[in-house]
User: Fold Xanthorhodopsin from Leptolyngbya iicbica LK.
Amino acid sequence: MEYITIASVPTELTANQFSLVYNAFSLCIAAMFAAALFFFNAKSQVGRKYQVAVIISGVVVSIAGYHYFRIFNSWEAAYALQGSTYLATEELFNDAYRYVDWLLTVPLLLIEAVAVLALSKEVARPLLIKLATAAVLMIGTGYVGEVADSITTRAIWGAVSTLPFLYILFILWTELSQAVERQDRRVKTLLNGMRFLLLFSWGVYPIAYLLPELGIAGATATVGVQVGYTIADLLAKPVFGLLVFSIARVKTQIDEAQVADQRPVTDTNGNRAEDLVGSTR
Amino acid sequence: MEYITIASVPTELTANQFSLVYNAFSLCIAAMFAAALFFFNAKSQVGRKYQVAVIISGVVVSIAGYHYFRIFNSWEAAYALQGSTYLATEELFNDAYRYVDWLLTVPLLLIEAVAVLALSKEVARPLLIKLATAAVLMIGTGYVGEVADSITTRAIWGAVSTLPFLYILFILWTELSQAVERQDRRVKTLLNGMRFLLLFSWGVYPIAYLLPELGIAGATATVGVQVGYTIADLLAKPVFGLLVFSIARVKTQIDEAQVADQRPVTDTNGNRAEDLVGSTR
Assistant:
């Protein structure tokens, strides 16, 4: 049994099929880097203790932007227009970029989600170790399936990969459920949104992965898998990051209001207020 | 009926026609990234509650800069100089970049316009949902027309696309009219400028779209459409962003002056002043 590290793509695509994937990749590059610019510039809008979550959002979308740049170039090189159809060239389309991307970004996304909850270190650390280990197992086994030659091998490794995937969702879901109860009403709504976005966006990955198993083969499967992963990445990274940013901003407002109530004549601007409190204690 | 996703361009252009479009695209790349550098660096010149509007201005022109870079490269690859004329190559000019760009930037421009008004969340949210839905409908139906093979199909989808377009302008116009009345005199002048810039710059898009319908065909139509869209993008993004920045700056000065009136011996620097008011109420 030989594993090839490069995904097999159909030898022929219509102009519409090729362009749909091409334009989806280009949109994704633009969206990822735009989100990065937003997060890095908007981090000062949230209190200091939430800024790391926003910075990590920026890092995640930057990594994804880089990988979509590579994926776009690989897609462009893998096909050439002949008459009115696109035929596969000598160059192979490299799907490994996605798995390299997930290997870096999934643990960071988990850190981001935990960071914005602002849990204590004693709770956060074991949680992150469990989640990161499961993430690496999920991506590693998923990749073996993705590059497998036979549909059966793909299904088996896909099933193996689903176990750590479900474990991550279970941990995050229960942890978020607990966190939700402790929060202010506005934060509660946003955290609930985050729970459902996690479930929904992460749910797209196995569906895209499953397409070839469902008998949707050839060009349609490839277009479905590529566009599906792209949509999932847009939801799981920039949209998720915006939700984290919103949670951080609402929490900052709540923190500032509390400081203002306690200390009437003080500068309540973000971190500074916090620092003031600290320095006068 | 088959839709091709790549705009058909004339097979022959004079050197002047090719260069006019080429140089317009290059100018646009420079202007977009220059504006991005300005907005990201100048955001600290406005009070904290207006900074998100300025950051979004920076994000919008960055996305547009990326797309003009792609459009420029696509234009360059689509023609080759043969003797004294430019002949179409095998490479197709990809006009979809514009629609991908608008799909991302138009909702952001609407958010930007609403953000600088600093409306309450209860007013802003339903307004943005209406505007964003209309924007997606407008761009989607416009794209179908843009890539249509027949001039009739183009006209039909263009007309369909005009309905959400007019709806957006109507909503923004009435909302801005209401906002204008509530504002200080200096802000009033700027908001009025914003209303007219919106109407004028957005008005260029349907004119550029209409050129092929008006019997202006072939090379002249292509040059007109490309240069027209470029001018419209320059007005609707960097120039609009500068107006938003000016509004934010004047509003910041007014907020600071109010704080200074109430508390003669205080630091009136930007956000802090605003926060001080909050904390002493």
Observations:
- Chain A has eight helices and three strands.
- Chain A has one domain: 12-250.
